Amino acid sequence: MIGILGAGAFGTALAVTYAKADVAVTLWGRDAAAIATARRMRRSDRLPGVPLPDAIDLTADTGAIAACDVVILAIPMQRLSTVLAQMDVRPRIAVAACKGVDLETLRGPTAIIADAWPGTTPALLSGPSFAADIARGLPTALALGCADETVGVDLQRTLSTPTLRLYRTDDVVGVELGGALKNVIAIACGAAIGAGLGDSARAALMTRGMAEMLRLAPALGARPQTLMGLSGLGDLALTSASPQSRNFALGQALGSGATPEVATTEGAATAQAALRLAKRHGIDMPITQAVAALVAGDASVKDAIQTLLDRGLTAE
């Protein structure tokens, strides 16, 4: 049985795809009233238009998760440590499905899991994926990061479905950073489109943003080739070009002068965390710096773009 902590769009989408694959799944959400409604109506407001199969056990009781050998954590990165500290469950394996860097500790989700749940083997899922696509059964590929090869092989079999294909790697840091840093670049790309700067500007930001990702990741212990895979380049390509991405949508709103919708946007906090990591390691990340200033309200899109354009000319 698979347990999923977090009944947002992504957690619900995973529950739907596993239920369709005849896997017993328990989906936990903290809002008891919303969970009761979803259980009765077999619908979720977080995933409109998608029926919830009867095989999904919806619950607001953490005790129901205790029987699950594998628990997927579909919880926003900046709330992960708090939620885990409040949970009584201690699964054998915990798989993070969040993308970001903790703003307080500057660590990724697997380190947060290891601290909060000693004895639990941490892993994570990351890659180009929209919740609606997964729930509809559209083909999706994700990277599965797990330092323990034996556990990783078992997880790959357990968490793959006919429409959800997982690629395994032991480069956990690389998978974490690919999924986290691409959100920052997606905000920049959205801002460029929102400000009317065009697709050429977006392509430049994607490319130079990838260069920044490849400078920081090895300094933190990641393998560069991991960033060129699903959790880095693949996810960057998806989220830098679609308003379905919350990070792109945030940047687009900021770029056009609109008021951003209130939603969890992991890249906003990750920009601040990544900038602190870059300064700690002496790494130049101008796009990340511009995004951090933009989301903090310390710079306008015009100012941020001008700062990037005024930089000295260098070799690629």
TrEMBL record:
EC number from the UniProt entry: 1.1.1.94
Catalytic residues as annotated in Swiss-Prot or TrEMBL: 182 (proton acceptor)
GO molecular function, one term: NAD binding
Boundaries of every Glycerol-3-phosphate dehydrogenase NAD-dependent C-terminal domain copy: 171-306
Positions contributing to NADPH binding: 10, 30, 99, 131, 246, 266
Pathway participation: Membrane lipid metabolism; glycerophospholipid metabolism
Residue span, Glycerol-3-phosphate dehydrogenase NAD-dependent N-terminal domain: 2-150
Catalytic EC class: oxidoreductase
UniProt keyword annotations, A-Z: Cytoplasm, Lipid biosynthesis, Lipid metabolism, NAD, NADP, Nucleotide-binding, Oxidoreductase, Phospholipid biosynthesis, Phospholipid metabolism
Positions with a binding annotation for sn-glycerol 3-phosphate: 99, 127, 129, 182, 235, 245-247
Taxonomy, superkingdom: Bacteria
Catalysed conversion reaction: sn-glycerol 3-phosphate + NADP(+) = dihydroxyacetone phosphate + NADPH + H(+); sn-glycerol 3-phosphate + NAD(+) = dihydroxyacetone phosphate + NADH + H(+)
One GO BP annotation of this record: carbohydrate metabolic process
PROSITE patterns documented for this protein: NAD_G3PDH (PS00957)
Compartments, record wording: Cytoplasm
Binding site for NAD(+): 6-11, 131, 246
One Gene Ontology term, aspect cellular component: cytosol
Binding site for substrate: 99, 246-247
PANTHER family registered for this protein in UniProt: GLYCEROL-3-PHOSPHATE DEHYDROGENASE, GLYCEROL-3-PHOSPHATE DEHYDROGENASE [NAD(+)] 2, CHLOROPLASTIC
Family in the record: Belongs to the NAD-dependent glycerol-3-phosphate dehydrogenase family.
Function: Catalyzes the reduction of the glycolytic intermediate dihydroxyacetone phosphate (DHAP) to sn-glycerol 3-phosphate (G3P), the key precursor for phospholipid synthesis.
Name of protein: Glycerol-3-phosphate dehydrogenase [NAD(P)+]
GN (gene name): gpsA
